[in-house]
């Protein structure tokens, strides 16, 4: 399997439809924690929907409109990073992430997201990488800060989730900013 080491026994690998059972088991371990602000657990409620969600990203990858990668820690799938939106002609994309709770607090998502942003900026010529996050989601906002992103603004009450309207903050990093970060954005913690 193609894999990029994230250190400390963690690896970043493609996450594909054939891994639906493994993905569902991971989602079941983290369903409540992952679903506090994002609907991913609802999109992967059972084996069929988990496989469909993975297939939707396989389709995006084939069309070059999105990407999905899993994070494995000591051989166990514990989370992932993705490009929900990837518009190569416009030079813009939106990254996202999740972890099951046992894998949080180790810097895995920060390191994994650096890998995919670096690829998007350096190999794919992306100019702007966005991060959309609920204003209540402090851990994810902290990831955006660690990545060197700036807060562009807030979409007030734009996201209705589980009966509550959330504010969505938009964070971003531009290619020249990314390249000027220590180690080109790839080496800081
Ligand atoms: C968002 C989410 C992935 C953040 O998880 P996280 O573990 O805090 O993020 P990281 O993997 O980057 O780890 C950072 C933490 O590890 C610590 N850490 C340890 N070693 C580290 C290292 N080498 N590099 C960076 N951070 C490190 C950091 O200090 C930080 O902990 P702190 O917040 O207590 O200070 C997690 O909260 C989550 O899955 N939430 C549910 C899904 C979700 O909301 N996704 C985001 C949608 S926008």
From TrEMBL:
Q: Which domain of life is it from?
A: Bacteria
Domain N-acetyltransferase: start-end pairs: 10-167
**Any coiled-coil regions, as ranges:** none
The portions of this protein that span the membrane are none
The family database entries (SUPFAM superfamilies) matched by this protein are listed as: Acyl-CoA N-acyltransferases (Nat)
Entry protein name:
RimJ/RimL family protein N-acetyltransferase
Look up and give the organism this protein is from: Nonomuraea africana
């Amino acid at each position: 399997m193609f894999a990029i080491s994230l250190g400390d026994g963690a690896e970043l690998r493609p996450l594909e439809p054939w891994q639906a059972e493994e993905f569902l088991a991971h989602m079941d371990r983290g369903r409540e924690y992952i679903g506090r602000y994002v609907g991913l657990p609802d999109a992967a409620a059972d084996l069929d929907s988990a496989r469909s969600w993975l297939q939707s990203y396989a389709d995006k990858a084939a069309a070059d409109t999105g990407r999905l990668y899993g994070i494995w820690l000591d051989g166990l799938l514990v989370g992932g990073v993705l490009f929900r939106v990837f518009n190569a002609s416009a030079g813009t994309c939106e990254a996202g992430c999740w972890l099951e709770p046992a894998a949080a607090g180790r810097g895995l998502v920060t390191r994994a997201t650096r890998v995919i942003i670096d690829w998007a900026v350096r190999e794919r010529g992306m100019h702007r990488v966005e991060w959309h996050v609920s204003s209540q989601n402090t851990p994810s906002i902290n990831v955006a800060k660690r990545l060197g992103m700036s807060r562009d603004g807030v979409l007030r009450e734009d996201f209705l989730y589980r009966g509550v309207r959330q504010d969505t903050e938009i964070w971003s990093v531009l290619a020249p900013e990314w390249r000027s970060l220590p180690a080109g954005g790839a080496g800081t913690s």
